[in-house]
Amino acid sequence: MPVQIPDDADFTSFKEQCESLDGWTARYNKGAVTVWCREEESKTIQKLKMRIVCKDVMAETLYDVLHDTSYRKKWDSNMIDTFDIGRLTVNADVGYYSWKCPSPLKNRDFVTMRSWLPLGNDYLIINYSVKHPQYPPKKDYVRAVSLLTGYLIQSNGTNCCTLYYLTQIDPKGSLPKWVVNKVSQFVAPKAMRKIYKACQKYPEWKRKHNPSLKPWMYPEQNTLPCINVADLTVQRADSLENIDESGLSEEKSHNNSEEEET
Fold first, then answer.
1. What is the CATH number of the domain that holds 219?
2. Which residues face 55 on adjacent strands?
3. Residues 169, 138, 83, 135, CA torsion sign
4. What's the predicted TM-score (pTM) here?
5. What are the tens digits of pLDDT across the range 60-86?
């Protein structure tokens, strides 16, 4: 399938999915964080949505944090590696991301096409998986598939914003029930709070690390090599190896509940 760079209708549709509660079941609601799950017809698809209210963070700051791969290495402890591969347009690129899965599952990675759009008081970033000829699946990772993943940031005034994170992925494996429960009850809320804390520390960090460098806002700063969209294809889940991890039992990797809330 040819790769299509998202247009305004795609961004609008994503925003509507973030805001709509139809078909979503709340699995966690504590403090400023809410997590919803959605049952899909395919048992292999995991669809999750999260929301956090950030009371002392500007929407523009949150947008910068989600874009800044150099800073991400400072706060995203689940990440193993991330890097930008190349650019497609002034607001679309291709990148790589790998992350640690709960033990004893195999770690996953993605190659995705990402696109972004500031829209009035809203900021949107969305991605889906693509195949890049120079970045095939690795033997030490399970190549997962993002069908649609992204962020919606909504400004709630001068120093307050709301972040939605919606992900629809095929992890390429039959996952045990405890994984899904752990993600919705512990991993997801903790990740949202981690982003919030990262936003609070970002302005000070950025002042010391190329403060004027923001290629997601200033395309003329982008030094990534250009990629021809015709060289990419949509990553189909059925072309990747499927592994069965449903029988794996959870290793003793629980942090104490107090740490989960920090």
1. 3.30.530.20
2. none
3. negative
4. 0.90
5. 999 999 999 999 989 998 899 999 999
